Amino acid sequence: MASAPADLPLPGTNGVKYREKAGDPVRLASYGLGTKATYLRAAKGDVFSRQKGLSEAVVSPDGRLTAGIPTAYRAGHDSLLITDRATGKTNRIRTVRAPLVAWGIGWSRDSRKVVLTVQRKTGNTWRTAGFTIVDVTAKTARTVPVPGLTRESGFWWSPAGGLVSPYRDGLRLYRPSDGKVAATWAGIGLTAGAEDAFSPSGKRLLSWCPSRFTEGLCLVDPATGRLALRVNVQPEALFGWWDESHVIAVMAHGGAYRLSVVDLAGRTTRVLAELPRATWAAEFWVTFTR
User: 8, exposed or middle or buried, with CB in 10 Å at 0-12, 13-18, 19+?
Assistant: First the structure.
């Protein structure tokens, strides 16, 4: 028999409760409201606590570490804080010097590295200037400038260890060693999801369908860089994969929203949380460990 779901209260979210079951393929690890408030789940248990002084907090895929972005510079530098979840010990690793910022935590699947998107403010607009790779074992950071990036550019790891970023109506693969373009996939739509857009097996990649299609969600074959499937569903946002055949999406519902599990036919198969309009308007986000 399926176990009854546990309703986990999420502080600071207008009464949102996350419905979790034993045996779920992913575990809610952190959430937040834009960069104003970040909440992290305890290493053991179901309590979420606000992380004062952090604008982001993301648990590593193996669950051992937390990467956090401070809300302010220290000694003129942005930083990444790496915390051992068992001991509570934190190491501060400098990333970029002001006025640059490095944000958007992307863990490699082996939990050894973090990629951050580097931006510079020009007037009132933030523009992407490159990426920073943090080696969490060596406690070092290396920043690579990349020319020709668009405003939408942001960097995530591919399962093979390259870097993926949206580019025009598709995406580009970059070499992490020097930022050179390894491949360009045009016409497939922008990568979808704030976390890992690749499925657990790495054999599927999520994208927002290009405007020439009526469907909202597309799947790309990473082996060929071609569209493999179009899903007739219109999510407000995507937060990665539930399992190989389901995604985690925010769907409009009854004047508000739902954090839902959606299959590749576009059907909602499970509701994880009811999201009031005010909570979603506050830029609600979630991260998971597998």
Answer: middle
- DSSP secondary structure letter of residue 74: B
How far apart CA 269 and CA 215 sit, in angstroms, is 19
Between CA 107 and CA 249 the distance in angstroms is 20
Instruction: Give me the amino acid identity at 215.
Output: E
Distance CA 110, CA 125 (A): 34
Q: What does the block give as tokens for 158?
A: 């591919």
Query: Residues 17-48: pLDDT tens digits?
Result: 999 999 999 999 999 999 999 999 999 989 99
Cis peptide before 99 (omega within 30 of 0): yes
Break the chain into its structural domains and give their ranges.
1-52+204-290, 59-84+92-186
Which residue's structure tokens are 């999801």?
Answer: 193
- The predicted model gives 177-196 an average pLDDT of 89
Q: Above pLDDT 70, what percent of the chain?
A: 97
pLDDT tens column, 231-268: 999 999 999 999 999 999 999 999 999 999 999 999 99
Residues in the chain: 290
Q: Which two tokens stand for residue 254?
A: 């009854």
Angle at 285 between CA 243 and CA 160, to 5 degrees: 45
- Looking at the whole model, is its pTM more than 0.90? yes
pLDDT level of residue 1 (50, 70, 90 thresholds): very low
- Give the position of tokens 């604008």: 55
Q: Cα separation of 59 and 105, whole Å?
A: 10
CATH superfamily of 59-84+92-186: YVTN repeat-like/Quinoprotein amine dehydrogenase (2.130.10.10)
